Amino acid sequence: MTNDVLTYMHGLGQAARDASRVLASASTAQKNNALLATAQELEQASQSLLAANAKDMAAGRANGLDDAMLDRLELTPKRIEEMIEGLRQVAALPDPIGEIQDMRYVPSGIQLGKMRVPLGVIGIIYESRPNVTVEAASLCLKSGNATILRGGSEAIHSNQAIAECIVRALATTGLPATAVQVVATTDRAAVGALITMPEFVDVIVPRGGKGLIERISREAKVPVIKHLDGVCHVYVDEFADAKKAIRVADNSKTQRYAPCNAMETLLVHSSQTESVLKPLVAIFQEKGVELRGCSRCLEHFADAMQPATEEDWHAEYNAPILAVKILDSLDEAINHINTYSSQHTDSIITENYTHSRTFLTRVDSSSVMINASTRFADGFEYGLGAEIGISTDKLHARGPVGLLGLTSEKYIVFGDGHIRG
Amino acid sequence: MTNDVLTYMHGLGQAARDASRVLASASTAQKNNALLATAQELEQASQSLLAANAKDMAAGRANGLDDAMLDRLELTPKRIEEMIEGLRQVAALPDPIGEIQDMRYVPSGIQLGKMRVPLGVIGIIYESRPNVTVEAASLCLKSGNATILRGGSEAIHSNQAIAECIVRALATTGLPATAVQVVATTDRAAVGALITMPEFVDVIVPRGGKGLIERISREAKVPVIKHLDGVCHVYVDEFADAKKAIRVADNSKTQRYAPCNAMETLLVHSSQTESVLKPLVAIFQEKGVELRGCSRCLEHFADAMQPATEEDWHAEYNAPILAVKILDSLDEAINHINTYSSQHTDSIITENYTHSRTFLTRVDSSSVMINASTRFADGFEYGLGAEIGISTDKLHARGPVGLLGLTSEKYIVFGDGHIRG
C-alpha cells in the first residue's frame, strides 16, 4: 500500500512539475480567468459542495471530533460565498510574475536586472478546513505556481468536491488540469512522500498546529515556509502616553483571543504601575482575562493575579489568559522580548524618540511596532491582499506571506555580443 | 571525545548568538573599523601567517595532497595582499543593515514598511582555502551577522593565525571578540554539530565540491544556502548574428574552463551549422577543447567530435570538454535547457525580439542572458562588490549572493495608539 501511495504521489509530483512549466509563462488574463471560472463553478456546485461536506460532518461527528474541529470543517452557504469572494479578490490583485526591476548598466557594458518568477511547485499541508483548499490554490495559481494540496483526512469529501470545481475551471481556460491537484488519498504516507520529493516540490507550506509544523520541518527534505508560534509582547515604556498604552494593550489582548498576533505577555515599566497597569488590570478583570503576574505585580495586585511561572513567559495561550511583568528599563524589556518572544510581533508604547528607535532596531521579530496593536500583524491589514500564512522564519519570507512570498527572482542580462575580458 | 566536541560547538553557538544581538545594532562605523583593523592586523602579522601556513603546507605535502589542493592551501605575500585589499573593499561597500523601505499608510491608519536586518548567526563550511576565512568573515561582519567558520582541517594553522588577527581587530573596536569564531578543532564531529543546532545558527553556507554540499544539505537541520553545480548552456538561435554567436560561445567556454559559469553544452539551431558551428569547431579544436556531439553533429563534424552520451548532457566538466547539440527550434532548446541545465546560467544568441522574450520568460535559471557570455554570472561582474557564493536555490537567495543575501527584512509599523476594530 505504501508503495502505491509513493507511486501515486510521484505521479502527482511529475504532473505538477510539468504543469509548473506552463504556468510560469501563463498570462495574467489566463490565471485570472481560471480564478473567476473557479468562483463560478463553486457557485454552481454549491449544493453538491454542501452535500459532500455533510458526509464529512457526519463522519466527523461519528468519530468524535470536538466542536472547534467540527466548526472548522463545516461548509455553510455563507462560507461558500466567502470562498467565492476570496477568489475574486485574488483575481483583482496585481500579478507579480514577470515584473522586471532595477535594469542597470554595469561597467562591462551588460545591462542587468531581476525578473520575478514563480517558485515552481508548492505543497500545502493543512488541517480539515475546506476553505483553505480554495484560498491556498488561488494564491498559488495567481503567483504562477503549480500546487499539491493535502488537507486533513476528515475533509476528504469536501476537498474532492472543491477539486472537481477547480479542474473544471482550469479546463475552460487552457491551463493544465494538473495546475492544482488535491491529494485523493487519506493515507498518511502521502504527507511523508510530499515532503521528501525535492525533484518535484520546491517548497512546503504547512498550516496547522505547532506539533504538525514541527514534525513536518523535522522530516522534510524540501524547504518549509513555517509558522510556529505567536508569543507577542506589548511593552509600556516609562515615556508611554497612558491613554494610548491602555487602549493598545487592551486591544492587543481582547479584540480576539485566538489569533497568533494577540498579546500573550504585557511588560510594564515600573513608573507606569499606577497610571497604566492598574486601569488595565480592572479592564482585564471585567473582561474575564486571567492574569498571571511576576512577583512585583503580585505586590500591587495580589487579589487580581496568580503568580506567573517560567512557563508563562514562553506560553502562547490563544485564550483569555495574560502574563504580566513589571520591569525597570527599556533594556530589560528588550532582553525579555529577545529571550521569550517567538519573534512574531512585539510592540512598544512610548512617546520617546530614542526609545522608539532603539526598540525598532534591537527587537528581532518579524513585525516590530510603535504605538500600535499587535493585532495589526496580518496580511490583509498589511495590504498584501491575502496571505498564505505568517512566517516565523528569517530566510526567504518573514512575517505575513502574500503572493510575493510565493515567488523568487532571477537575474536577467541583456548584452550585444558582450564577452568577459 | 564527540561529547566534548558537542559541548565545545554549543559554546561557540551560544557565544555567537549573544554576539549577534550586539552586532545587529552595531553602527556602520564600528563594523568598518573592525574590517580595516583586521586588514592592519593581517599586514602586521604577515610573517607569522606565512609561518603558520608553512606548517600546513608541510603537513599537506607529507599527507600527499595533490597540487591543486596545495595551491588552494598556500598563502603567499601576494595572497595576503589580496585578502587585505578584499577587506578594504568590503569596508567601502554601503551598509545594507537598518535600511527602511516602502513606508506607506494603509487604510487602518498605521504606517507600514520594512527594515533590513541581519540573519543572525551564519555558519560557513569550506575547504582548505585560508583566504575564504577572511572573505566570509568580512561579508558576515559587514552584514551584521555573527559567524562560525569551519575551514578544511589541512588549513588549521593558517586559519587559527588569521582568527587571532580578527580577534585582535575586534577588540580595538568594542565589538564582541566572538563576532567571528574559527572552529579550533579538526574533529569532523564539529561539522555535524554546526549544521544541527538551529537554536544557535540561522543559516549554513557551504563552499566546496558538490559531494560536500549534498552531504551537508542532507544532514542539516538548519537552512542551507547552497551552490550545487553549473551546467550552463549557450543556445545559438536561428536568428543569431553569427559574429556575436561565435564570440560569445567561444568566450563562454574558453575564457576560463574551471569556473561554474563556463558553458558546458552548446546548442545550435540547424540553420546555423555552417555559419556558426563550423567556425566554432575550428576555434575549439585549435584551443584543444574536446568536443562531444549529438548524432546530427557527427554527420557534419565526424573528424572533430566524439559521440555524446546521455551523461554528457548532465555533465559539469569544468575542463576543456564541450557537449554540442544541433536542434530545430527555440522550443527544443528551451526544453533541453529546462531538462538538463542546473538552473545556474543560460544564454541565447538571437536578434529576434520574440525569441529573446520567450527565452527570458521560459528558461528557469538563476541567470538568463541574451547575447552575453555566461561568464558574466558572478558577484563582482554583477556589481555586488563581493560574493559569498552563487546560489542554485530558489528560496531566499538566487544567483550570485552578496551582502543582501545575508540579510532578512522585518516589518515595522508606526502608529499613534492605533487599535484594530
Automatic annotation (TrEMBL), chains A, B:
Catalytic activity annotation: L-glutamate 5-semialdehyde + phosphate + NADP(+) = L-glutamyl 5-phosphate + NADPH + H(+)
GO molecular-function terms, A-Z: glutamate-5-semialdehyde dehydrogenase activity
Protein name: Gamma-glutamyl phosphate reductase
Keyword NADP attributed: yes
Organism encoding this protein: Thiopseudomonas acetoxidans
Primary localization: cytoplasm
Gene assigned in the entry: proA
Record function comment: Catalyzes the NADPH-dependent reduction of L-glutamate 5-phosphate into L-glutamate 5-semialdehyde and phosphate. The product spontaneously undergoes cyclization to form 1-pyrroline-5-carboxylate.
EC number: 1.2.1.41
Family that this chain belongs to: Belongs to the gamma-glutamyl phosphate reductase family.
One Pfam family per UniProt: Aldedh
